[in-house]
Amino acid sequence: MKELIRIVSIMLKEKRDVLLSIIFGSIAGLTAVGLFAANGYLISQAALTPPLYILIGMVAVVKLGSLLRATSRYGERYYSHRATFTMLSDLRVHFFEKLEKMPLPDIQRYRSGDLLSRIVGDVESLQNFFLRVLYPPIIMVTVFIGTIMFVSFYTVEIVIILIIGLMLTGFLIPAWFAIKQRKLSGEILNTRANFSTETTEWFKGYRDLKIHRQLLEKEQQLISASDAYIEQQENLGKRSNINHSINLAVSFLIFWTVVAVSGYLVASGQLDGLFFAMVVMISLTLFDHSTPMATLPIYYEESERAAIRLESVIDSPKIKSKKQRGEGNFKNPPSITLEHVSFSFPGESREVIKDINLHFPSGSKTAIVGPSGSGKSTVLNLLLQLHDVTKGTIKYEDINLKDLDQEQLWKQAKVVLQENHFFAGTIRDNLLLEADFMTDEEIKQLLFDVQLSQFTPSTEVFENGENLSGGEKQRLAMARAIVKKGNIWLLDEPTSSLDSWTANRIYNELYRRATNDTVILVSHQLAGLEKMDQIVVMDQGKIVEVGNYEALMEKKGYFYKLKKIEENIISS
């Protein structure tokens, strides 16, 4: 419930539209009842052949009432839907602002399809919260109160029947539906999230599935998820129709009760027969405002689950305000220290990093090498706070990484990961994500420096760089890192797809550009590391050796063996 209260607080930012929609909705509802009452009275009067001016007056009232009803109904629809769409917009902004401040490890706990389902589907589900949960009861009560006050001038018995009908169709029957709804599984949002996840994985992994001939099996999983979602939707539709039908049947029962009692009152002389048709017509249209209450429990449950799913993502205790964090705006390249750092992935007992101690001096150039699975990339991810350490401490200068303003860290970091995203556009668009301005000549020189002289600033790049080779992506990522401001270089396998000659040229450009910066390079290739200040050798999550290139080669230890293996492979 507290999650929906937050939704209400966001919705009330547009309280003017909400208030106007309620006012126009109430006017439209009362006018509709008034029109039916006027028509009933007009029918009765016409049967008694009254003076013509009375009929003309009643017809004029009906016409004016019809115009007022149409106008107010339009205003109600306009303002209620504008309030809803604005609320959804505000909710998306609120969600993204919270998501933006979340630590990356918290975001990575969610599969991409599930997160997409929450951002799109769950937010979309909340459009029914105002239109079908909050709005109908207010209009129903307003119209019923106005109608009952009017009918009370003619007959108290009919007022009692209408109040009983209100309690049944507006409160008791919907409450019974709500209890049934609680008992049903109603996992439609989870089913939709599962379907979205399977769809996302199918699209992202289509090529690999095709290559490994697993496409058919994955398609079956996707179809199963789709069928489950369709079944949930059908069940929801059936429940909605059944609830609406039951409430409508009760409202018709109340209507016939009003007809019977009104007939008795007219026969017994307790009600003027002139008002019989008017009372009957009022009861016929009045319950149009209570029958929508039958589906309110369904939409309430859906809205509550959607709000809970959204809040479960963004309601993270790890989100800190900038006042609680260190500044982290390093004017000089920072030193970085790892003290007894260990790391395990959530839910796993196996330690990927095991009690390591490392120091990267300010302005130093460090390479972390080792076989695949040794924990090299994990160390880099920990430095970027893509994961939180399980044990130990990471410090930038004397600031604990947990207390560091993550925005400032990313502002200072020049990052090249194993997988880098490229946007649909041009080379210029992808290079100038951070740079304020670069001329075409400057871009051409940069492309020449990273061995991409075959490209021009206006060369088209497809989404995610689909028209680029693996080596071209790595060189373009390096160019983007060069353009970005900052004094911390964190590079993960930046030359793994390049030949030795091109890799050496890239390393030379790196040394030239990062003369005074702190550089940490992760690589399984050992060529081109001769100029590094220190080389950290890792194996199975532990540090095996630390030293510069000459010292490690003279020691003839683990690094020496890896280097000889690499040379033998290249020579063969």
Throw out a few tags for this protein.
572 residues; alpha/beta; Rossmann fold; four-stranded antiparallel beta sheet; 20 helices; 10% strand; elongated; transmembrane helix; transport
Characterize the largest beta sheet: strand count, sense, and whether it forms a barrel: 6 strands, mixed
The first-level CATH class of the largest domain is given as: Mainly Alpha
Number of strands: 12
CATH-defined fold name of the largest domain: ABC transporter transmembrane region fold
Distance between the termini: 68 Å
State mean pLDDT (0 to 100 scale): 85
Helix content range of the residues, please? Answer: 55-70%
Please work out how many helical segments DSSP would assign. 20
Low-confidence stretches: 319-325
- Pairing-aware structural class of the strands and helices? alpha/beta
| Strand content range | 5-15%
Shape call: elongated
What is the rounded Rg?
35 Å
Number of domains: 2
CATH superfamily of the largest domain: ABC transporter type 1, transmembrane domain
CATH level-two architecture of the largest domain: Up-down Bundle
What is the strand arrangement across the widest sheet? 6-9-10-3-11-12
